[in-house]
Amino acid sequence: MSALAERGPASKLGSRWTNWRRGLYRFRQSWLSVIGLAIVVLLLFAAVAGPWIVPYPEHVTGGINTGMRFRPPSWAFPFGTNELGQDVFSLVVAGTRVSLLAGLAVVVVAALIGTAIGAIAGYRGGWIDDALMRFTDLMLTLPSLILAMAIAAALGPGIPNMVFAISMSWWPGFARLVRGEVMAKKEEVYVQAARAIGAGTTRIIVRHILPNIVSPVIVKMSLDMGFAILTVASLGFVGIGVKPPTPEWGSLLSLARGYLPDYWWTAIFPGCAIFLAVFGFNLLGDGLRDVMDPRARR
Amino acid sequence: MLEIRGLSKHYPGRRGSKGVDALKDVSLSITKRESFGLVGESGSGKTTLTRCVLGLEPPTAGSIIFDGVDLASLSPAAMRAMRARIQIVFQDPYASLNPRMTAHDIVAEPMIVHRDTLRLDRRQRSDRVVELLDLVGLGEQHLHRFPHEFSGGQRQRIGIARALSVNPELLVLDEPTSALDVSVQAQVLNLLHALQERLHLTYLFISHDLGVIRYVCDRVALIYRGEIVEQGPAGDIFDRPGSDYGRMLIAAMPEPDPDRSPFRTPA
Amino acid sequence: MALLEIDDLHLAMRSFEGEAHVLAGVNLTIERGEIWGLVGETGCGKSLTGLSVSRLVPSPPGRYLKGAIRFDGQDLLGCDETAMRRLRGRRIGMIFQDPTTNLNPAFRIVDQMVDVALHAASTDPSVLGLPAGAGRGERRAAARRHAQAMLERVGIRDAAQRLDDYPHQFSGGMRQRVLIAMALIGRPDLLIADEPTTALDVSVQAQILRLLYGLVQEDGLTVLMITHNLGVVAQLCSHVAVMYAGTVVEAGPVRDVFKAPGHPYTRALLAAVPSAATPRGALRGLAGVVPNLLHPPAGCRFASRCAAVMPTCFAAPPPAVPVGEGRTVACLLAQPAEA
């Protein structure tokens, strides 16, 4: 430690860089998290480059090929074709963008709402805490998928409405996490030190507490990402949310379910994509937790 | 300079239990520019006493008078300004610095909080941070590092610089060296001594380490279960403790001298 | 034969920054009935030395490069985990700094102690005073009796009742007594105590030291006490080894070392402790920092901070020179005793 201070970096940026490298070292200690990261990077690549790299871009925008219906997987159609003769591989790859974006939006919105409510409840305590947390518990008791379906049904289909609907059922988890973290952090000596200086409540929350609970929130976001994608797909499956022809994993799966088991490839591959996303984000989240665990760093 | 009169603090117990009297009728007076030692073991009430002095905890009874002003009579705004005059250095240099802030930001923060009284702009604050770090023996190259990149002694220096940034008159030193190695402790104690001479500070030094207290303090009070059992000039208390508790503590103090071991007779 | 002999022990620990040479030639010979103090500052390797004796250094990241640890003639570095487990419960007892975290809060003291006793008895039934092949119930009853006897031995009143208490019902000092009792269950020959009094108040510390001293005098225990507190060493220990940056710089009978320190680091360490005679401002700290053990210096590891440094100090690590009865100093300035 002292040796590090002696030769350590001279700038704030340099300091952050060293922290980051130390994190990466710890991350690499677990090959599962590296696999998770690889999967997530692959998905991100598909999400960004999707429409340009797929073999049949015209299928992604709704083009059909009736002469090629239900071809099994082959070199020309790695995942086969569906009932409209579209290349399933192209649809699955192109669907990554919508699924990932929707999942990310859900998690970000939920984290923002949850952090705000959790931070106030945890810092203020007393009746404010009681009121906010009872409300949170109430939201938790509602089955999230049903709630999301109800909201989506009330507001009509469409991606923004779907994201809003899922976020509404998602934030309580963040609120609970943040409340607990804030309650623990507000007893930290450095928070007492800030209070002894005479710092006000806003300053203490914004400068001293929130920066120190970012890690668990990011870890939860990563762990939740997979399930958020799954939920988006579920809503797609039951026909709320993304409308065709926009390719999305859940709706692809939904359209394919009538053709099982004969044309299994139309369902299996979108399913695998969902599985891969859930799996990848979970592994990544576990790895991040190891890296960011404050007990592991000093 | 600091006068504590009949201070009591009672923590009510939960449902039926009697609660705890953390402080019972404590009176102390600390004169300007002296080092006053407060010695007590865990649960003695010394932490509660500091929290009351810092205005973090309202006393149940009694008064704390700082420089002629009763702290209880102050408005919240006046209390905030008063906070700049009484500062604290914490025991654990690993826990008392925000891990997400750089040394510069940690030392500058009190100046931002008290910008109404200090009237320093951003540039002036940064200059003063450099000055303060230099004062406590840290070079400019440390400015933008995070706490975990420092050794324990360096962290405690940052903690001292933070406390000094608002020109306090009274410094509460809450076991400032008990988490440090002896060679580092010696450096920090000498630094504190030099700073006191230079900045005319008054110290309220809290510790369970009698050797350190004897080295640093002019006058000493022993606190046991919320009560002051003995107070007086340091020399008197160490040479002729007047209370049973004082005698017990001094006997239990492990001197680094094999000949004074209770377990063996000198050769 | 010495009870414990550590011979030129070298240990490396891997981390993100690289592999650090954290123990570099630790030598220590402990005879039965001695109380050794192992002192030094944070990161000097004193705890790793203690952990090495009980083979509790995880590997990886730890790796022994060289050297041997012999306990009663048996080579510990060559032992497998099963053999070590047998030694740990039985012949080597250990206590650690924080008495709050080393007891499981969910179990009564008696359950935790009986477990340890049965483990010890599984290697050596004589621990419980039972013949081999005693029945299960018989063993449990004997284990409980033994646990109670140990609690009484460490000065816990009403031991029979207190056995059924949970850890939180004991104060910090009492918990440390319970941990000592647990360490003593196997009737060990060697007790390794890592900062056992650091978390305790001075008055409680004095009681624990008295207890340890009594155990050595009356029960013939041998103690390796790891601490940063020179006062504790001066009071309790018969011998002391001073460590700096992974090396033992000086070792010998405590009075000889404290009264006439032979190594500049020992002198600096002793000068840093305020005593009754130190005038304010006269305390001597130690400037500089511990060398980076990722790239340790070729010569003496203390050279960069040493007040008596010479050019030759940077060439090679100084050998431990015998300077008197059972006393060594690893410094080029040390005068070897006349043979």
Description:
The complex is a heterotrimer of chains A (298), B (267) and C (339). By secondary structure, chain A is an all-alpha fold. In chain A, 75% of the residues lie in helices and 0% in strands. Chain A has a single domain, classed as Orthogonal Bundle (MetI-like fold), CATH 1.10.3720. Chain A has twelve helices and no strands. The longest helix of chain A has 37 residues. The N terminus and C terminus of chain A are likely disordered. The model of chain B has no long low-confidence stretch (mean pLDDT 88). Chain C has two domains: 172 residues, Rossmann fold; 86 residues, no CATH class. Chain C is 32% helix and 23% strand. Chain C is built from ten helices and twelve strands. In chain C, strands 6-7-8-3-9-10-12-11 form an eight-stranded mixed beta sheet, with helices on both faces. In chain C, helix 3 crosses helix 4. The chains are: A mainly alpha (298), B alpha/beta (267), C alpha/beta (339). Chains in contact: A-B, A-C, B-C. At the B-C interface, helix 7, helix 8 and helix 10 of B face helix 7, helix 8, helix 9 and helix 10 of C.
Strand arrangement within the widest β-sheet of chain C reads 6-7-8-3-9-10-12-11
User: How many helices of chain B does DSSP assign?
Assistant: 10
| Number of helices, counting only DSSP H or I runs of 4 residues or more of chain C | 10
Structural class by sheet pairing and helices of chain B: alpha/beta
Termini separation of chain B: 49 Å
Question: What oligomeric assembly is this protein in?
Answer: heterotrimer
Order of helices and strands of chain C: EEEHEEHEHHHHEHEHEEHHEE
How far apart are the termini of chain C? Answer: 22 Å
Biggest interface: B-C, 41 and 42 residues
Spatial order of the strands forming the largest sheet of chain B: 6-7-8-3-9-10
